[in-house]
Amino acid sequence: MSKFTLEMNRYFSATVGAYSLVTDREATGDKSVTLDRYEKEVIFSAYHPDSFERRGGAESTGYDSHKEFIFHDRNHIRSKIKLAIVYPKKTGQELRLYFSKPTGFDPQAGEYWYIFRDGDDVPHIGVMDSFVWENIFQSKSYDPFLFKSQQNFDDEDDSYQKEVGAAIAGLPISTSNLKYRRSSTVAKNALKAANYLCEAEPSHVTFSTAAGLNYQECHHLIPVSLQNHFEAGLDVEENIAVLCATCHRFLHYGRGEEKFELLTKLWLAKKDGLDRRQIKISFKELLSIYTGNGLL
Ligand SMILES: [Zn+2]
Ligand SMILES: [Zn+2]
Predict the structure, then answer these.
(1) Are residues 167 and 118 both part of a single domain?
(2) Same domain, yes or no, for 28 and 107?
């Protein structure tokens, strides 16, 4: 439907690309899309227009009806896949690309699918949640490439981690003298609910604590230091992201623009829970906190 903008080229490190919003009919009926001229331009830069199989009673061209792609799933994980892409009619230039559940390329109505080239011979193809797409590319007032250096929004984090660590290891907890008190019971519940796995990437195994559990840390997605801006309490399980120590430090001390992906992931995982707790915040406001711009 549209060509990649400069911003999209930059985001994907692409030389050329195109994207479309998937319609209900494409997702549930046809399970395929007809490529428009921009999408064809991208695919033809990798595969010659004559190298596609023709159907509709045409004589076989002898070419494989499946072409190779580097697929980007909703979590930005890549894999090499093959997708059917053919001229469905005996004559004419209509080119159809078929969705395929087993490969992962199975976009739903309202999601974006995209195709692009970079230095690789194989073209890239992907699916993205429309919410994430629109926040990356269509938000006027927000540019993910303009993260400021981050302020320290939680200068009591170390003391809090000590308390949580002691609590999960079954060690005595020294009496808290934190400005913003946080319950270690709430932290323990959050850890348990996350099954002691890092919410950025569950494969991040650390070490077993004295209590025999995979060590993880608790991070308040909306910093408790902002409590006076919220009516609902922020020290609740729903506002706690369970992260391995590396991912946690990254969120505090990493480069702003590199945090966007993790924040998107955590937001998608937490937003329903925050909503249930009447913690009112938009994704844009959350990003604003992490970009060092404070609450809008
Ligand atoms: Zn933290
Ligand atoms: Zn991690």
Answers:
(1) no
(2) yes
Q: What is the pTM of this model?
A: 0.59
Q: Which residue shows structure tokens 């596609």?
A: 52
2 alpha carbon – ligand 2 mean position (Å): 36
pLDDT of residue 150: 53
Q: How far is the CA of 143 from the centre of ligand 1 (A)?
A: 24
* 7 and 95 fall within a common domain: yes
Closest CA to 215 of 158, 149, 167, 168: 168
Cβ contacts of residue 135 below 8 Å, gap of 6+? 142, 264, 283, 284
Residue whose C-alpha is closest to residue 244's, from 274, 277, 199: 199
Measuring CA to CA, which residue among 182, 208, 197 is closest to residue 243?
197
**Which one-letter amino acid corresponds to residue 114?**
Y
Domain that holds residue 274: 157-290
Amino acid at 240: I
| Alpha carbon of 240 to ligand 1 centroid (Å) | 9
Kindly state whether residue 296 falls inside one of the protein's structural domains: no
pLDDT along the chain (296 residues), means of 10: 87 93 94 96 95 87 91 87 95 95 94 94 93 71 48 76 84 74 92 95 90 92 90 96 94 78 88 93 81 63
Q: How do 66-72 and 124-128 pair as beta strands? A: parallel
